[in-house]
Amino acid sequence: MLDISQQTLADAVGVSRAYIATIESGRANPSLDLVNRVADRLGIEIGLVARPPLVFARPQHDLVHARCSGYLDRPLRRAGWEIRREVEIVHGRSHGWIDLLAFDPRTGTLLIIEVKTRLDDLGAIERQLGWYERSAMAVARDLGWRPRRLTSWLIVLASDEVDVAIATNRDALAAAFPMRALEMSGVASGRIVSGNPSRGIALIDPSSRRREWLIRSRSDGRRSQAPYRGYADAARRFGP
Length: 240
Description:
This protein has 240 residues and is α/β, with parallel strands linked by helices. Helix content is 40%, strand content 19%.
């Protein structure tokens, strides 16, 4: 298109005409420096995007997340679920941890729980849960469990900022997480068996001693004020 011969381009970037021909045919593996020189000569702007392997790192969790995770463990165990926390998932170079993996031997339900203290990136959460769902059945069988169905829950700290995030993403959450606190409570107690793989979202207050431990969001009809203004408020209350 620029009416530049292979030889002219080769001379301009300091390689042989034959090497330019191998680049055009897709048989060369030029260095980034040469790619940059060729692009500059041709007036092409190149952007380099480096994507690391899928890694959901497990750093030392903060106190708020730890309180939420520990809070979930107790009512599920009382309801008869077998629990494993911080379950490692490895597939190739992808590496992550399921916050809680629970199995109900009464119904054969395998439950993946992802705990969040904020809702910052819904797309990333969906991708993370999707990966866990593809791996969880095999992990459960390695633990000696025999699951017949799978469901995933997103459990979030009950706060004003989370209510705002849920309201902002209401339509997306309705499609991605159709189950809500009431139905999820039925699944936890064994009264409801979800026939199809489904996801749910509910809130929790890790300081609460209420019997109904799964809380609705304001978008789902809750009228009471959230127990925390936001993550910082919870961290201040839980801190030393």
